[in-house]
Automatic annotation (TrEMBL):
Gene Ontology molecular functions: NAD binding; phosphoglycerate dehydrogenase activity
Reaction it catalyzes: (R)-2-hydroxyglutarate + NAD(+) = 2-oxoglutarate + NADH + H(+); (2R)-3-phosphoglycerate + NAD(+) = 3-phosphooxypyruvate + NADH + H(+)
Originating gene: serA
PROSITE patterns: ACT, D_2_HYDROXYACID_DH_1, D_2_HYDROXYACID_DH_3
Listed InterPro entries: ACT-like_dom_sf (IPR045865), ACT_dom (IPR002912), ASB_dom_sf (IPR029009), D-2-hydroxyacid_DH (IPR050857), D-isomer_2_OHA_DH_cat_dom (IPR006139), D-isomer_DH_CS (IPR029753), D-isomer_DH_CS1 (IPR029752), D-isomer_DH_NAD-bd (IPR006140)
Protein name: D-3-phosphoglycerate dehydrogenase
Domain ACT as annotated: residue spans: 456-528
CDD domains for the chain: ACT_3PGDH-xct, PGDH_4
Major enzyme class: oxidoreductase
Keyword Oxidoreductase: yes
Keyword Metal-binding on entry: no
Pathway it works in: Amino-acid biosynthesis; L-serine biosynthesis; L-serine from 3-phospho-D-glycerate: step 1/3
Length: 528
């Protein structure tokens, strides 16, 4: 008997679809140990954000074939382990877009008109019309951070309400923003200029604590901040301090670094100008029905041997091609990750150049893998082989594919990725050696010979005596261990690049020190 376990509250419409093909057991509130003990009996697991699907849970799922997330974020699922174990992960990327956007709008309006505070005061017997005088949104500046599905809906509605909308999203082209009547801005300018700021970006290592004391300090003292995206993007202690000290005008949050919100969270000690809701962004009857139906249909189809439409971890490519091209795909993704971390500003174009023997491989999977790598810093684990091309298109990123069979640089050929954007571009080349090892072979046309490693530091500097020693000393003083180092140059005492593999990531404060070294022109920490 095919069995599906539903471990979070799911709309009945979804349960009814699952029941067409399986026995459905609904068990909400299971501990990780309970889940581990039970999961071995099930073919599918359907969840929301409440269930932590850890590596141990997935490994205990001997017959588990699919995990369905009735919602967008799969940050509570160990997707790499699922992929490794051959378990498909599906989600509903659009089912709750409107609900989350409307929650942000509700919070903006509540902040501007003190709705929760005025309600509480009236219920307590008060009639205070003076204390709760508010502000209009009309003609105010809205700053949207993350102009994706939810951010663009908020921008559209706020435009219609007469607000001036500016946005920060390094992965949206200026043309696309213009179509939405949105002016792109730097993050700093946005925080300085906006009267309302709303966050709609994913939580990734890059966006963790992005809104910190420094950025909050740039806001107008009357400006209000809304977060319906993910907890952890705002430094909650810094926000509590900024609200208490009147550095900003107010904040409304739906999501938290730790959920449920800890009883001793600094946010709970803020008396005024703060509105908190318990992760209700997707909690509308419409959205819950949408996501439940969307995901239940995918689970049903997969259990019947049909493909899923929103797979997070399975490429739409044959298993045979995937197996044959595994190291080449890995190279394309690694180069994509690398080049995206060198490139600042708005990305407008990605050129994928297949050289020598590389040009004989099917290009589509390599282009998709490169795009997946490039977009990972923007979209985290939400980007996959299935959606990479669509996501690039939606962001107005042009993709050029060039085949150059005549190139003879490496026996197995090489792959070069070049990004172009409003702040110029970068290019990186790599090759796959006969034993499957990957090599980075050029960075911005400078020859190198580097094995990719998890943490790296890349510099562009003047080729002159002492610079390598100085950089080594600065890293040593900050206890950053260097595993390997390579310098690439084209002419003596001209420009050069340095590539260091390091054991630890570079803290932001150290990057400032590195930039101050005489002769260093650029320094990029890279995580692969
Ligand atoms: N509160 C809720 O219940 C709820 C409901 C649904 C979605 N969400 C969350 O809302 C967020 C947005 O969802 P979406 O569906 O619009 O996603 P999306 O992928 O369509 O859009 C995210 C956008 O953020 C941009 N981005 C990435 N890194 C950035 C950075 N460092 N600075 C600025 N922009 C950056 C991306 O380019 C992209 O355009 C996600 O974090 C999602 O998990 C929350
Ligand atoms: O990622 C999502 O879809 C939202 O955060 C909603 O989460 P929920 O399904 O737990 O309400």
């Amino acid at each position: 008997m095919t069995k599906v376990l539903v471990s979070d509250p799911i709309d009945q419409a979804g349960i009814d679809i699952l029941a067409q093909v399986a026995q459905v057991d609904q068990r909400v509130g299971l501990s990780e140990d309970d889940l581990k003990a039970m999961i071995g009996d099930y073919d599918a697991l359907m969840i929301r954000s409440g269930t932590q699907v850890t590596a141990d849970v997935i490994k205990a799922g001997g017959r588990l074939r699919i995990i369905g997330r009735a919602g967008v974020g799969v940050d509570n699922v160990d997707v790499p382990t699922a992929t490794q174990q051959g378990v498909l992960v599906v989600n509903s990327p659009e089912g709750n877009t409107i609900a989350a956007a409307e929650q942000a709008l509700a919070l903006m309006l509540s902040l501007s008109r003190h709705v929760p505070q005025a309600h509480a005061s009236t219920m307590a017997g008060g009639w205070d019309r003076k204390k709760y005088v508010g502000n209009e949104l009309y003609k105010k500046v809205l700053g949207v951070v993350g102009l994706g599905k939810i951010g663009s809906h908020v921008a559209r509605v706020c435009n219609a309400m007469g607000m001036e909308v500016i946005a920060y999203d390094p992965f949206i082209s200026a043309d696309r923003a213009q179509q939405m009547q949105v002016r792109l801005s730097s993050l700093e300018n946005l925080f300085e200029q906006a009267d309302y700021i709303t966050l709609h970006l994913p939580r990734t290592p890059d966006t963790e604590n992005l809104v910190n004391e420094e950025l909050l300090g740039k806001m107008k003292s009357t400006a209000r901040l809304v977060n319906c995206a993910r907890g952890g993007i705002i430094d909650e202690s810094a926000l509590a301090d900024a609200l208490k000290a009147g550095v900003i005008g107010g904040a409304a949050l739906d999501v938290y670094a730790q959920e449920p919100l800890a009883t001793d969270s600094p946010l709970r000690s803020v008396q005024e100008r703060l509105i908190l809701t318990p992760h209700l962004g997707a909690s509308t009857t419409e959205a819950q029905e949408n996501v439940a139906v969307d995901v239940a249909e995918q689970i049903r189809d997969v259990l019947l041997g049909l493909p899923a439409r929103s797979a997070v971890n399975i490429p739409g490519l044959s298993a045979e091609i995937m197996e044959r091209l595994k190291p080449h795909l890995q190279l394309a993704e690694t180069l994509g990750l690398l080049v995206s971390q060198l490139s600042g500003g708005q990305l407008q174009e990605l050129e994928v150049r297949l050289q020598g023997e590389f040009a004989q491989h099917p290009s589509q999977p390599l282009v998709i893998a490169a795009l997946k790598g490039v977009l990972t810093s923007a979209l985290g684990d939400r980007i996959n082989y299935v959606n990479a091309s669509l996501e690039a298109k939606g962001r107005g990123i042009r993709v050029l594919e060039v085949k150059d069979e005549t190139s003879k640089d490496f026996a197995g050929g090489s792959l070069q990725l070049t990004t172009r954007g409003d702040q110029g571009g970068h290019s990186v080349t790599g090759a796959v050696f006969a034993n499957g090892d990957l090599r980075i072979t050029t960075i911005d046309e400078f020859p190198v010979n580097v094995s990719p490693s998890r943490h790296m530091l890349l510099t562009r500097h003047r080729d002159m005596p002492g610079i390598i020693g100085q950089l080594g000393s600065v890293l040593g003083e900050h206890n950053v261990n260097i595993a390997s180092m390579q310098v690439g140059r084209r002419i003596v005492r001209g420009d050069a690049v340095m590539v260091l593999s390091i054991d630890d990531p570079i803290p932001p404060s150290l990057l400032v020190t590195i930039h101050a070294i005489n002769g260093i022109k650029e320094a990029h920490p890279v995580t692969l």
